[in-house]
Design brief:
By secondary structure, the protein is mainly α. It has a domain of 70 residues. The protein contains five helices and no strands.
Length: 135
């Protein structure tokens, strides 16, 4: 992007973020921009150049506004209902069984699946699906 068309991109982003020039200027100044409202308006219309620092501050200001606009339009991921029982993840069950089997005295009880949790897959019986077993 050349410096000549940068002001056009900033202006297009400002419109897309649905901000007035004044709102953009307030963000720009809050981030440390040095220009006044008239300087910013003139820059957006291609009438006055801004230094590199001020162009970067302006870019940050408009990008933050765009992020806020698009964040509001995002579709959230599904989440469980509050209070709904959570089925244990397979990794949780594996860790619980491993901890029980590796306890110092070996007397720890192997945890049972929670009510409503999907049943564990069936284990192969002796000789089925195991190496060296008869098929």
């Amino acid at each position: 992007m050349t410096g000549e068309d940068r002001h056009e991109r900033v202006e297009a982003a400002r419109r897309r973020a649905e901000m007035t020039v004044h709102e953009l200027w307030l963000r720009y100044v809050a981030l440390g921009g040095n220009g006044d409202l008239f300087d910013l308006d003139a820059y957006l219309n291609g009438l006055l150049p801004l230094g590199s620092f001020d162009q970067n501050v302006l870019a940050v200001a408009v990008n933050e506004a765009l992020e806020e606009v698009y964040r509001a339009a995002r579709v959230p991921l599904t989440t469980p209902r509050p209070g709904a029982p959570r089925a244990p993840a397979p990794a949780d069950e594996v860790h619980a069984v491993t901890d029980a089997l590796l306890s110092p005295d070996g007397s720890a009880a192997v945890p049972r699946p929670q009510e409503g949790a999907p049943p564990a897959p069936p284990r192969p019986s002796a000789g089925q699906g195991e190496p060296g077993g008869s098929a």
